[in-house]
Amino acid sequence: MSAPQDSAPEAGSVPRRRLFQGAVGGAAAGALAVGGAWAVEGSRSSGMSDPADKDAIDLTTQYPLYDQAEPAGIRTPPQRYAIFMTFDMSAGTVATDLQSLLARWTAASAQLMAAQPIGQVQPTSDMAVGRDTGEALGLDAASLTVTIGLGPGLFDTRFGLAGKRPALLTPLPALPSDNLSAGTSGGDLSVQVCSDDPQVCYHAVRNLARMARDTVQTRWTVMGFGRASAGQGQQTPRNLLGFKDGTRNISEAADFATYVWLRDAGWMTGGTYQVVRKIEMNIETWDADRVSDQEKIFGRGKSAGEPLTGNKEFDTPQFAAQGKDGKPVIAPTSHIALAAHENNGGVKILRRSYNYTDGINEFGQLDAGLLFISYQNNPAHFVQLQRKLGAGDLLNEYIKHVGSGLFAIPPAPKAGHYIGEQLFAR
Amino acid sequence: MSAPQDSAPEAGSVPRRRLFQGAVGGAAAGALAVGGAWAVEGSRSSGMSDPADKDAIDLTTQYPLYDQAEPAGIRTPPQRYAIFMTFDMSAGTVATDLQSLLARWTAASAQLMAAQPIGQVQPTSDMAVGRDTGEALGLDAASLTVTIGLGPGLFDTRFGLAGKRPALLTPLPALPSDNLSAGTSGGDLSVQVCSDDPQVCYHAVRNLARMARDTVQTRWTVMGFGRASAGQGQQTPRNLLGFKDGTRNISEAADFATYVWLRDAGWMTGGTYQVVRKIEMNIETWDADRVSDQEKIFGRGKSAGEPLTGNKEFDTPQFAAQGKDGKPVIAPTSHIALAAHENNGGVKILRRSYNYTDGINEFGQLDAGLLFISYQNNPAHFVQLQRKLGAGDLLNEYIKHVGSGLFAIPPAPKAGHYIGEQLFAR
C-alpha cells in the first residue's frame, strides 16, 4: 500500500465559538486562539464568575487534513491533550520505504481525524489480525489533528534526498540552556497528535506507530496535557509555574504570514519548521519561592498576568519604564523582556506548548515541565530567542532543557496526495 | 491547622444527562454509569451515527465532598483523566501529624472540588509564598473528585492506631499473576484524583502533595486516561486491548449495597476498600494476534462486545453452551468465564479503571496498560477473582501485574469534620 486512499473526509465542522474573533479565520484549521485580545482574566481566587469558563468541550469537532491552506495542528486552537513522538528510519530502509510510510501515515491520519478506524477492527477472516486496534471505536474525533514532521537526518546520504533538503533544516546549534539527553532528542520523523479526548489521542499515535513498525523504530515521546483554558473560550493558558504563558503569542493573520508560513521556499512553500523542547521544571523548588520573586522573574503578575508596568494582561509592557529607585520596573533579565519582539528585532514565533508530567523522579519529587513546541518559518528565530533566554533568563534556576528536536512540516496535502510527496518528485 | 475549614461547598450541579437511567440515583455522587443497560454499541467501522457520541463534556459539573451518603470518586461517573498517587508517612511523624494531614487534605479537597484555589495564589505580602500554585486559576472543576485511602501500614505500631484498624485491611496475599515492583506498590496513604480536565487533575494532586511535604514522602503514581466513552452517554469503555471492559460491571443500587459499601463495620460503615493494580499490557504483541484468538481470550466479540454465545453486548453469557464440536463456546479459561459472578459464588466488585501509558519502554515498544482500581466491601472478593484470573486467564500471556496496593476508604465526612476523623476519637 504505497498510495494514499483517495477518500476526502467530510468537511470539518468548526463550532462558531471556536473561532477566535480577533484573527482572520483562515480557510484552514480555524483561527489561532492562544492569547487573543478578548481573553478574560479568570481568577478563581477572586470568586468572580467568568462566562468563558461556563463552557463545554464539543467532542464532535473534526478538522480536515486534505486541501487546506495550512497543515493541521498548528493554527488549530490547542486541544487539551497532546502526544509528541519521534521515530528513526530502521537500518536498511530505502527511499521507497519512507515514501510508502508517508503515504500510509497520510491516509491513516485523514481517517483518524474523521473519527474512522484505519481499517477493520474485526476482520471477517479468522486468520487475520486487526488493521485498527479498536480502542477508539464509538468515540468522536474530539478535534483530533495529526502533524507530521521531517527531521534533518532524512536528508543525509541514506535516501538520496539531499537535494530536497528544506533550506533551513539543519540541526539546532548548541544553546546555553542545553542539558539534553540523546534519549529525548532528535529523530528522523516527528508526529504531533492533539485531541480533546486522551483515548482518541493515544489511539492515533499507537496506530501510526504500529503501521510503521516495518520501517521505523520509536525514539522518544512526551505526553502533554491541556494548558488550554476552560471550554472553548481559550483564555491564555497557564504553565505549571502557575503563570499565564502565551499572552503575547502570535494571533494576527499578518504575523502568521510573516513569521510562521514559508513563502517562496520551493516544495516547502506553505509549510513551516517545528522546534520541540522538553523543558523540565523544578516545580517543588519554584513553589518554595516567594510570589513577588516569581513575578519579577516573569515580569508579570501571577493571577491576572498583567505586565509589571501595567494593570491588565494585554497591556503592552513598557520595558523602558523605571521605578522610583531608577531601576527598570520590568527587569531586563525577566522572561518577558528577553523574549519580547521589541527587544529582538521584531522576531516572533508561534508557541503551541503543553504541560507534561513524568510522575515522580528519583528523588521523590514531582517530575513535570513543559512540552515546548514552536512553529516558525526560520529556525534561527527560535535560536536567537533561546540564546538570549538560555544565557540571561532568571527562570534558568528553575528549568532545564532536556530534550530537543527540529523538523520540517510540509504543506498540507491535496486530496489524492500525501504529506511530503514532493520529496519524491523527479 | 488541625481542623478542616467549615466551608461547605455549593451543592454540586449534576447535569441530568449524567444520571444513569438504569440505576437508582444516589443522593451522593450521581449514579454509576459504567456498563449501563442502555449503553449503545457505537462502532466507527460500521459508519453508523451514534446519538450518544454527539455530546460534549460539561466542564462546569461539580461534586460535593461533605454530607454525602458515599465517598466521592467511586460511584461517580468516570471522568476522562485520573491520577493515582501514594505516599508514606515520613520517619518521625506521629499521630497528630497524620490527623493534621487528613484534616488539611479534606479541607483542600472540598475547595478543589468546588473549583477554588486552596489559598492565595498571589499573597499580599512580598515575602510570602503562594498557598495555591495557580495553574488552575480560571478553570472549572470539570467533575473533579478526590478520594483518600488509608494503607495497612498506618495501623502498625507507629501511630498507636492498631485498635482502629479496619477489620479487613491486611496487605493483599501473593497472587499467581504477581510481578510486582516495590517502587509501584504499597503506601501508607492513597489519593485518587479524577477530572475531565487534565490540568485541573494535576493541579489537585500537586497541591495535595505539596501541602503534605512536611509529613509524607511520595511513593508511586500512575496517570490514567479516559477509558470512558464519548460524551456523558457513558457507553462501556474500552481498554487498550481494544475490547469493551465493564459490560458486566456493578450498576444496580442493590449490588452497591451488597458488594461495595461497608455495613455494620464500626467507624468504617459507609466506606469501602480500594484495590489498585498497575497492569502492564504487551500491546505490541497483542496487536500481532489474530482477532479471532483475541475474542476467544476475552469470550466476547471485539467490535460490539457480545458474548460469544450471544448477539448483543448485554446478552447474558451462556457458559454451559457447547458448539458442534462439543466444546464450550465460551472457553472456561476465557476472561469473562473466570471473572463471572455465576462462576464465583455470586461475588462482584466495582471496577473503576483507567488506561495509562508510560511512553516507550527500554526495548522501544509502546509502554502502556491498565490502572485497575476496584472497590469492594471485602478485599477477599478481589483476591478470589484474581487467584482464578492469575492462574488460568488466557490473557496472562499479554499482561503483567507490576504494581499493587490496598487501602481503606473512610465514609464521606460531615461538614465541619474530616476524612478519617474517627481514627482519632477516644
Automatic annotation (TrEMBL), chains A, B:
Domain Dyp-type peroxidase N-terminal: start-end pairs? 72-225
InterPro entries (UniProt xref):
Dimeric_a/b-barrel, Dyp_perox_C, Dyp_perox_N, Dyp_peroxidase, TAT_signal
Is Ribosomal protein among this UniProt entry's keywords? no
Keyword Transit peptide assigned to the entry: answer is: no
Q: Which PROSITE patterns match?
A: DYP_PEROXIDASE, TAT
State which residue ranges cross the membrane.
none
GO CC aspect terms: cytosol
Q: Give cofactor(s), names only.
A: heme b
Q: Which UniProt keywords apply?
A: Heme, Iron, Metal-binding, Oxidoreductase, Peroxidase, Signal
Question: Which residue intervals define the domain Dyp-type peroxidase C-terminal in the entry?
Answer: 236-412
Q: Under the GO molecular function aspect, what terms does this record hold?
A: heme binding; metal ion binding; peroxidase activity
Family membership noted in the UniProt record:
Belongs to the DyP-type peroxidase family.
Task: Kindly give the PANTHER family that the UniProt entry links to this protein.
Answer: DEFERROCHELATASE, DEFERROCHELATASE/PEROXIDASE
Protein name in UniProt: Dyp-type peroxidase
